[in-house]
Each structure stands twice: as structure tokens, then as C-alpha cells.
Amino acid sequence: MVVDMLQKERILVGMSGGVDSSAVCMLLQDEGYEVVGLTLRMWDTPNQFASSSQQEPNHILEARELAQKLGIEHHTLDIRQAFRNEVVQEFIDEYLRGRTPNPCVMCNRFFKWKYLLEEADRLHCSRVATGHYARIVECDGSVMLACGVDKKKDQSYFLWRLTPEQLQRTLFPLGNRTKEEIKEYVRSKGFEQKAAKKESMEACFVPDDYRDFLREMVPDLDSRVAGGYFVDAQGRKLGQHKGFPFYTIGQRKGLEIALGHPAYVVRINAAKNTIRLGVAEELLQTTAVLSGVRFDPAYTPQSALAVRIRYRSAAVEATIEMQEDGNAIVQFALPVSALTPGQSAVIYDDDIVVGGGIIEDTKLLKKYLTK
Q1: At what angle do helices 58-70 and 19-30 cross, to 10 degrees?
Q2: What is the spatial distance between Cα 44 and Cα 21, in angstroms, rounded to a whole number?
Q3: Which residues pair with residue 275 across a beta bridge?
Q4: How far is residue 338's CA from residue 184's CA, in Å, rounded to a whole number?
Q5: Does residue 13 contact residue 128 with C-beta atoms inside 8 Å?
Q6: Which of 359, 366, 365 is nearest to 98 (CA)?
Q7: In this structure, are residues 264 and 254 in contact, taking their beta carbons and an 8 Å threshold?
Q8: DSSP assignment, residue 313?
Q9: To the nearest 10°, the Cα dihedral for 229, 217, 155, 49?
């Protein structure tokens, strides 16, 4: 998109009403950009409304109020039905397959950035900006995703599927700052209440326990998955469970079964509606199978790579061998615990995101080991 250099560059900011996206608006204003705010209305939950007469959720009202105080243009986009059909349905379907999804990873790549960039074009904005704690770095004339400097808040894991084309038009103004620095900055701007606002750590459409959400969205779910059994490594029945979608690999709490020792979910078999239980050591693995693997086209393959198998886990040194079918075999230098089908495995070279894939059941290893 051609931008008139005599005018300020227009940047579209995804405004959630929270402290991070609010800080982005202020930082970009300070840097001389013309800021345009956009709040996506993707999902409504009862706790987003302060009163029954309220027509729009709190985060839209808060974003609009901030935009007015900052003197910036603000727009909303109602995409609730599309979000329900694409993001939420995939979330439900994955649990019904006996997997544990990463809805934010899927949403960022295929949904959120799609609408942000479409609206940026419509509103004559050259780029988009969000409040993610991540960085974009140049590499051989292209751009690549990198970790944010605040390791406690780094969100590169959730952004690994963004394409170079999407990154080329994206700004992450918080990537070189810590969360505490951002809060202090927002306080210095006179928004003490905004800086103190509590953050949600769950998926935006799941207000509490995902199991309750599944039951709400699939009213006959309990009857559909009833009658399943916990089993041991030999397939012996240990007792009944509530239904395979209500469990995840590595789970210990909430099993409601006494075996005389700590038990963990080791494997989920959706077809048989069985949950295999075992001890903590049975969760340790050194090999993973990844599907949907992609490497950044600007990246030159190196041997010293590390793989992160969940958001809060540390990246573990690993080697990656691509297969003819597009899947990859990951060999970890140290055992990792609770490889969970459906979760993302993000591949790093130091703090640069070079690729990733989706974790599959390790039973697929047989397919490659027998070749």
C-alpha cells in the first residue's frame, strides 16, 4: 500500500480494552503515528456486561472511551457468527477427537489477522499493531517472529503460524518492554485504573471451566460420551470416567479415582472412550510426531534448535527430521513431559521463531520406524 509521506502513517490498532492494547495506542501516538482503533466483537459472555440493559460488552465500551480520551478514530467489527463457525467449532471438534486444542494459535493466523488486515485496507492504514509481547526482526531482507524481552510474558508461542506477509504489515510495540514497564507507562499517562485492571488468562470465549463450555455448546455431550473407562497400560478397567473430552494429557487433579498412588492421564482414546492412567514417569518422552509443519522461508536450517511444547514450558534442545508426507519427527535432547496431541510445538533458534507444527499421538511413530 502506498502511503503519502507528507501525512502521518496510519496504524490500525487491535483494541481489546485492556492495558496492553491501550499502551500500544499511546506509544504509537508518542512516536508520531496516526492511530486508528479497531475492536473485534468475537464472542459475548455474561460477565462482559455490567448491566442487563447494556447493548455492547464492556471491552468495547472501554476501548471506545479510551479512544475518545486519546482523540483517535475508533471502529468496531461484529464477527461473532464467523468466530463461532470457525474458531469455536474447531475448539469443540478437537476435544471431541480426544485432543487438546490451541484456539489462540488458530485464531491469530486464520482469523484475527485476516480481519485486522482487511479492515486496515478499508480504513487506509498501512500496518496493524497489537498488544502482544513479541518482536519482529529482519532476516535476509525478510522478517521473522522473535520472543519478547519479557520472558514471563513472551507470547511468540501463540503467534508462530503468522506468515511473513502478515508479519511484514504488523507492529508489536510492546516486544522490547516488560509488563511492569508498560503498567508504569500507562500510569504515567494518567490511566491508573487501566494499569491495575486484572487480565484474563483463558481463551476469550471460555469464561471458566472449558468442560462447562463444552456442555453448553453440545447439550447432549454427557450422554454421548458416558460409559467410558479408565484403564491401565494392559487395558484393564480401573473405573468409569465422565467422558474423554473432559480430560487432557498430564492431568492429575479431578480424576476422582483412588489407586493408592498419584495417577496421571497418559493417553486418550476417543474411539474407545478410554482414558489410560499411569505414573508420572510414563508421561516422559524423547520423541514427538508433528503434523502441519512449516519453517519460515527466510530461515536457513541449523542443527541447534529448541522446541517448546506448551506456552509455559521451556524450549528443549532438539533435532527435527522432515518426512516425505510433510510431518516431522522431533528428537529431544532431554525427556519432555505430557506431549499433548492438538497442542503446538514451536521451533526456536535462540529467541527466533523458525517454525512449528501440531503435536500428534506418538503411536504414529510406528509408521516411520517400520520404514
Answers
A1: 20
A2: 19
A3: 230, 268
A4: 37
A5: yes
A6: 359
A7: no
A8: S
A9: -140
Q: What's the order of all strands across the beta sheet hosting 73-78?
A: 73-78, 34-41, 10-14, 127-129, 170-171
DSSP symbols for 49-79? -SSTT-SS-HHHHHHHHHHHHHT-EEEEEE-
pLDDT value of position 52: 81
**pLDDT in the model for residue 366:** 85
Pick the closest to residue 254 from 230, 274, 221 (CA basis): 230
pLDDT digits (tens, 9 = 90+) for 87-96: 999 999 999 9
Most confident of 50-59, 73-82, 322-331: 73-82
Coil, strand, or helix at residue 141? coil
All residues at 6 or more sequence positions from 208 whose CB lies less than 8 Å from its CB, including other chains? 202
pLDDT tens for 331-366 read 999 999 999 999 999 999 999 999 999 999 988 888
What is the DSSP pairing of strand 264-269 with strand 237-240? unpaired
Distances (CA, A) of 87 to 72, 76, 79, 112, 246: 30, 19, 11, 10, 19
Rounded to whole angstroms, how far apart are CA atoms 59 and 44? 10
Least confident of 70-79, 146-155, 299-308: 299-308
Angle, CA of 36, 153 and 121, to the nearest 5°: 25
pLDDT at 3: 43
Alpha-carbon distance 360 to 89, whole Å?
20
Q: Which of 106, 222, 92 is nearest to 158 (CA)?
A: 106
CA dist., res. 139 & res. 299, Å (int): 8
* Mean pLDDT of all residues belonging to the chain: 93
- Residue 322 grid cell: 522432515
Expressed in percent and rounded to 5, the helix, strand and coil fractions of the chain are 30, 25, 40
Task: For residue 180, give Cα distances in angstroms to 56, 174, 195, 196.
Answer: 30, 11, 9, 11
pLDDT for 202: 66
Residue 178 predicted with pLDDT over 80:
yes
* pLDDT tens, position by position, 93-112: 999 999 999 999 999 999 99
Catalytic amino acids?
A: 107, 204
